[in-house]
TrEMBL record:
GO cellular component, as recorded: cytosol
Protein name from the UniProt record: L-glyceraldehyde 3-phosphate reductase
UniProt organism field: Cutibacterium granulosum
Keyword Secreted attributed: no
GO molecular function: oxidoreductase activity
InterPro entries hit by this protein: AKR_Detox_Biosynth, NAD(P)_OxRdtase_dom_sf, NADP_OxRdtase_dom
Source domain of life: Bacteria
Residue stretches making up the NADP-dependent oxidoreductase domain: 15-311
Amino acid sequence: MASRTVGASGLQVSRLGLGTLTWASTTPTAQARAMVHDFVEAGGTLVDTAPTYGSGEAEELLGKLMHTDLTRDDLVISTKAGFRVEDGTRIIDTSRTALLKDLEGSLRRLRTDHVDLWQVHAWGSAPIEETCEVLDHAVTSGKARYVGVSNFVGWQSATAATWQKAMGSRIPIVSNQVEYSLLARRAEIEVIPAAAFHHMGILAWSALGRGVLAGRYRTDTPRDSRAASQELSWFVEPYLAQKPRAVVDAVAKAGEGLGMTPAQVALCWVRDAPTVASALVGPRHRKQLAELLATADMSLPDEITTALDDITGGPNLARRKPQGQDAGQG
């Protein structure tokens, strides 16, 4: 599997990233373990997690696997901080105290002395200078190799990046992890241009439109699907309306002509979009992952990419820039 640099940094990641959102909930431990093996054997490196995934169990499982099945150097681990759920309420806390507590907890659960990429999970109410100072501390203390942000809109990511550049001696923010797929192209308006301007790479989460672009919901809701689960039905439901269904049908039609599955078409569209360093996917079992790993030597013809752009919101203007101007491609 090919690798890319994240923005203008020296961080190298596989262009397909393995997400762990469903670990310890709808993905059995045995399947998670098998998928990590398959992913690494295929040349994958980037595994994305967070303290909130499975209430910390995803990080714990990943930490265990690095001690029983893999070596630390097999993986590029990205995790996050500043977001938690208490009694069903989502709380964003990007204060120094909360971020450092999350970092220490992640390192303990992952059984490692450092993470490769540490990200602020969401924009919070703490002063941005306080949040950014913690990012500096994480790197200078050796507990993180690189730092990034997650779910920041354009002005938020630009503010954070500018603050880090202002003093000339602060640690640069190398990435912004945001939702990006054929069903979620909002990032193209401000987030991706801001990332390109500030030499940040995009980590595209839910590259398959929360699983909907794989085509499983075209006729009904399978009993074993995310949409049918108590934990994740809220996550999938917004993409089960009539307009997303039309997009899924178009993706499926493109796949039929190319000899690809809908999931493979959707993944290639995101993976090869300007500024994207890695497309993150969250398969729940090995068969789903194998389908996605098979895209290593696949790409979409320009005319198919253009047609999908037109169907889902219009041209991606960044595709028209001269080659080499976009961060995140390596």
